[in-house]
Specification:
The structure is a single chain. About 60% of the residues lie in helices and about 5% in strands. The longest helix has about 35 residues. By secondary structure, it is of the alpha+beta class. The chain has a 4-stranded mixed sheet, covered by helices on one side. A hairpin with a 2-residue loop joins strand 3 and strand 4. The protein starts with a strand and ends in a 6-residue tail after the last helix. It has 2 domains: about 70 residues, 3-Layer(aba) Sandwich (Glutaredoxin), CATH 3.40.30.10; about 120 residues, Glutathione S-transferase Yfyf (Class Pi), Chain A, domain 2 (Up-down Bundle). The structure holds glutathione. The site of glutathione has 10 residues, from helix 1 and helix 3.
Amino acid sequence: MTNPILYGPHFSTYVRSARLALAEKGVAYDLEEVDMFAGAHKEAAHLERHPFGKVPVFEHEGFVLYETCAILRYIDEAFQGPRLQPGDPGGRARMTQIISVIDCYAYRPIIPGIVIPRFTAVRSKKKPDEAAIDAAVPEAAEALAVLESLFVGEFLAGKALSLADLHLAPVHDYFRQTPEGESLLSGAPKLSRWWSTMSRRPSMQETAPSLA
Ligand SMILES: N[C@@H](CCC(=O)N[C@@H](CS)C(=O)NCC(=O)O)C(=O)O
């Protein structure tokens, strides 16, 4: 049996969520880097896999899938290993709700709004657009406050690790390294406790991006 393939750059938060799920399940896989800096995600070879030219894409025995939420669910359900979704309908619905909050309200202000300009400024040694970063902060703060209020246990969707934690952890990891993240997260005690547990997991260490 051939290994499943995950297409995407290792530093992408969404790619890392899929890598976390594979690591937590103990699934061996091949990571096919897509050079986003060179625009490879918008070239024909990748557009055939993903019509919107985004990452990640997952391939398993000829079955090709994009959209991280679907990929994570597939990884959990198609492979042996610890379950990454709550057993009850309410728990699964809450987990899905949290993933949706991350995708719809947290990702955009945090990653393109704050993390990318901050990290790009460090790498290029140029000043970022501080006004644009400031404009992203209220939305990021609102999303964090909602995530903080949705906690029902040690993990985002309850007592056990779930796909919701794997969705948020890569975003959180970059965000905490920015001044805005440091400041906002200092007022989020549940997220801070969660991060100290999450960041110690071997899966987090195995998938740590080298850009961060
Ligand atoms: N809805 C998509 C979003 C994926 C996404 O936005 N990926 C980013 C990288 S973290 C990307 O491909 N950005 C390139 C672009 O938007 O052109 C999913 O859940 O997989």
